[in-house]
């Protein structure tokens, strides 16, 4: 079966700074892969490459068997890749509904907005009673739901989710993961970037560990806990992770 996403020996850089070194990873249809590793090792960069936001300096990115290396980001979204970025990526001064309408107009066109809105509120019931509220006044968890709703409703082939649990209360993290689980059941493949290891291990089939811009381990989630405890994470977890 054709993989939903394949990175082949991807290198990436920010100006002169090389962030990724020959990163290869594959995500099959409906598969959930956790990308784990300490701060600053390149997880977000991999996420950006996977959704076309950063072009590799060398190597290849294939979505559904089509080489999209260096293609503009809209080709990735048309191919079914959605990206829920790090942080609260909502427009604070727009209402919940306007945030959604803005996204859906871009992705679905004017005709598709009403349908997509209805599905967004079905998928994230917490947002419906707040549809006229300014997004900036939502709680952190609600803002994360909103930024997920903006990309998820189209039932993407692949959702790239970057640190969705960062800074959220444990109960909200549970809700976020619950939503990811439902999305998964609906057939969406997942690339989950996380520092919160237990949730990611519970949700995902496979784990890719990143260290200093390179893959250091790739294997079944069931084996990952030991590997993480043994060598990669212990030291990093003891270090302060910043704000
Ligand atoms: N826009 C940028 N410009 C310059 N360097 C960056 C930029 N984004 C990230 N980096 C650097 O690239 C490396 C990997 O960053 P990132 O992918 O954000 O790591 P992670 O998500 O694992 O914390 C870090 O050293 C970081 O400082
Ligand atoms: Mg990051």
Word description of this protein:
This protein is of the alpha/beta class. It has eight helices and ten strands. It has helices at residues 43-50, 73-78, 96-108, 113-123, 140-152, 170-185, 197-203, 221-238, and strands at residues 5-14, 17-27, 32-36, 58-63, 66-67, 81-84, 158-162, 189-194, 206-211, 214-220. The strands form two sheets. It has a six-stranded mixed beta sheet, sandwiched between helices. The protein has a four-stranded antiparallel beta sheet with strand order 2-1-4-5, covered by helices on one side. A hairpin with a 2-residue loop joins strand 1 and strand 2 (17-27). Helix 3 runs parallel beside helix 5 and helix 7 (197-203) runs antiparallel to helix 8 (221-238). The model has no long low-confidence stretch (mean pLDDT 89).
List the helices and strands and how they pair.
Layout: E1 5-14, E2 17-27, E3 32-36, H1 43-50, E4 58-63, E5 66-67, H2 73-78, E6 81-84, H3 96-108, H4 113-123, H5 140-152, E7 158-162, H6 170-185, E8 189-194, H7 197-203, E9 206-211, E10 214-220, H8 221-238
The structure holds adenosine-5'-diphosphate (ADP) and magnesium ion (MG).
Residues 14, 17, 19, 37, 39-45 line the site of adenosine-5'-diphosphate.
